[in-house]
Amino acid sequence: MPVTGIRRGWLLAFGLAAAGLLQGPAMGQDAPSVVKIVQSEGRWQLLRNGKPYFIKGVNGSGRLDLLVQSGGNSIRAGGQALDRAQQLGLTVLAGLRMGNPRQGFDYNNAELVAAQLESARQTVLRYKDHPALLMWALGNEMEVFATPQQRALVYKAVNEMAVAIKRIDPNHPVITVVGDNFRWMLREVNDLCPALDAVGLNAYVDMLTLPADVKRQGWTRPYVVTEFGPHGHWQVSKTAWDVPIEETSSEKAEFYIKAYRRAVAGQPQCLGSYAFLWGSKQEKTHTWYGMFLPDGSPTGAIDAMTYLWSGRWPANRSPVIGPGKIKLMYQDVEEVDLPDIPAGTRLLCEVDASDPEGGPLTIKWDLRKDVADNPSAGGDREEASPPIEGAVVSSEGKRATIAPPLAPGHYRIFVYVYDSQGAAATANLPIRVRN
């Protein structure tokens, strides 16, 4: 079959990776790490250079100095992050790219499968002796929207890649990463991937039932929570016009603690976890998953992880959004439910916010076109929705006046609350403008 279209793109990417042209800097000069998974007295444990090692990690490779200060010890990232991690005493769960059927990768195409395997082999050869390397992670959520037949081919390729990597590098465990579909298909991974040392589980609200779900699926090997964070956008209530309702940053921080205690701390099969996301990104909104705001301000999620990792709260904690969240009034009527408003209406907005240390707050507002009903999945790239110019008519203290566009449609009001040291909290409220 001729190599055309998407197949050519994948082959080019894998070819460049295999040639070393898409990879990061060379490894550091310290001795290579040796990482093993052992079982003792009914518990699984990582041994790094002979010493017990529990993963206190995040997804992302920026602001690593703050991660160290917060008590973290590992990141989930690409090989290019190994040198910086080593400088700071961190380890890396290094990702190896595998194609996703939902994005067009065809696991029936032997040429493509061979190319991605060779790319992985070359990356392993390049980085296997790096002292900051902890484990290898094969792909990410390849099962999303895949048919049973596609999944069988995916996990056949995963197992073949695991076998090949362990021949080259016997000193670092190999896992693959599965989304919250693990609740019903982890048994497939167990049956089709005997070469894996453990499995990576991405879980959000499912953190609350994760240990029981793993047991029910018959998985007896260890696991790493490779992503966890707030309730996912597919797991929350929706408005009458079918857009998801986002938690406040303070509600998210509380859930990080609850989830960690339920699925990570004290669990005999768990080797540790990676919180999501040590940075910011556009996914349904620009504030949903980031532990930082897009301007780099840390939120309460970082406070929560600092407490979980170190047993202490940071000296300065982020502002808090209270149970009142964002209150709206228009035409002198206080709105309790999510508003469905007539065009041309001005909204008086008030945020319930406070500073744990009692300091002054700076509050900013904006209004954006709501794109949270887009169909993307699995963290695929989304276009951000910029603020609408002129929508914020005035702002003083905890209140603002906002004038939505006259055009009917879905919009979302955002508020950002900052303390004097740059820590932040955020909340948003979807609205619908009608004729």
Strand order of the largest sheet: 4-5-6-7-8-9-10-11
Q: What fraction of residues sit in β-strands?
A: 25-35%
Largest sheet, strands/sense/barrel: 8 strands, parallel, barrel
Chain-averaged pLDDT:
92
Order of helices and strands: HEEEEHEHEHEHEHEHEHEHEEEEEEEEE
Tally of distinct domains: 2
- Give unreliable regions as ranges: 1-28
* CATH architecture grouping of the largest domain: Alpha-Beta Barrel
E-strand count: 20
- What spatial form do the alpha-carbon principal axes imply? globular
Describe this protein with a few key phrases:
9 helices, TIM Barrel, 435 residues, Immunoglobulin-like, five-stranded antiparallel β-sheet, globular, alpha/beta, eight-stranded parallel barrel
What is shown here, in short?
The protein is α/β, with parallel strands linked by helices and 435 residues long. It has 9 helices and 20 strands.
